[in-house]
Amino acid sequence: MRIPLYQCHTCFGQFPPDEISTLPCNHLYCDGCLNSLFAATLKDETLYPPRCCRQPIPFDSVRLFLNGQLAAQFANKKEELDDKDKIYCHVPTCSTYINASHRVCDRATCQACGERTCLVCKGSVHLGDCPKDEEVQSVLTLAREQGWQRCNACGRVVDLRIGCNHITCHCKAEFCYRCGATWRTCTCLLFDEQRLLERAQNVVNRGGRPGGAVAVATMVNHLRDNHECAHDRWERVDEPDCECEECGDVLRDFILQCSQCQVEMCARCVNNRQ
Question: Looking at the record's lineage, which domain of life comes first (predicted)?
């Protein structure tokens, strides 16, 4: 009897039933891609919680499909990943995550080295007001010089490369890239016209196929009309060495292109990062 094979939603490979997991969104993942996703989550918090089609993947439902060591690492790190206000030991050579049970009032005691960290400024425990963090100040100075913007909710620095001035931060806050105000509370233009033109030129000229002025103008209008994109229509483009516009990875065989806004992303960013 011939064993049926099923296609992995991420790598498009064919696998027998015992090497395939069905996720909450009903997409199928091979053991290799599932392990790769959970391993990547430990290094890149934008992938947490592990998810596909914006639906979280319950750890307990796939634990048996994960490598034993990886499953143990994920279980041990889950509290840290779930923590919305993480605290780490201020000692650079330690930097251990300090869990909630070791935080009292305005200070946290490292369970690894015993040093105490201020919960406000994240530096060493001190008397009086928190001192300014010189490294943070230098980053903010660079951000101002480069024209970058800060999220008005979590303080994350954002650099806009493509798209309109409507920014949705990793913390889910929405704000205007041009002025930093909460989205829909300012009068700034939706697009920077020069950035829009450059984006249209880049899209039209993909793959070394230069397009004319008419093609660029058409693409400008298309991008302007489709700026509020849900990224729900993807097409596979079989071209080698394409760069994901979200994470920067270079794909060996193919890339996925949104048919609406024309952004190109790897399968991981499409399935697991949005």
Answer: Eukaryota
48-53 average pLDDT score: 94
Rounded to whole angstroms, the Cα distance separating 175 from 184 reads 8
Indicate whether 1 pLDDT > 80: no
* List of residues 6+ apart from 185 with CB closer than 8 A: 176
Strands (E), the chain: 6-7, 14-15, 20-22, 28-30, 51-52, 55-56, 103-104, 107-109, 116-118, 149-150, 157-158, 166-168, 174-176, 234-237, 242-243, 250-251, 255-258, 264-265
* Interatomic CA distance for residues 213 and 216, integer angstroms: 5
d(CA 250, CA 241): 6
In the predicted model, what is the mean pLDDT of the chain? Answer: 91
pLDDT band at 125 (very low <50, low <70, confident <90, very high): very high
**Closest among 7, 66, 8 to 38, alpha carbons compared:** 66
182 bridge partner residues? 175
Enumerate the β-bridge partners of residue 167.
Answer: 175
Contacts 24+ apart (CB under 8 A), 230-238: 230/260, 231/258, 231/260, 231/261, 231/263, 231/270, 231/274, 233/258, 233/259, 233/260, 234/258, 234/259, 234/270, 235/259, 237/264
Lowest mean pLDDT among 206-210, 236-240, 264-268: 206-210
In angstroms, how far is CA 196 from the centroid of its own chain?
A: 23
Q: What pLDDT score was predicted for residue 172?
A: 80
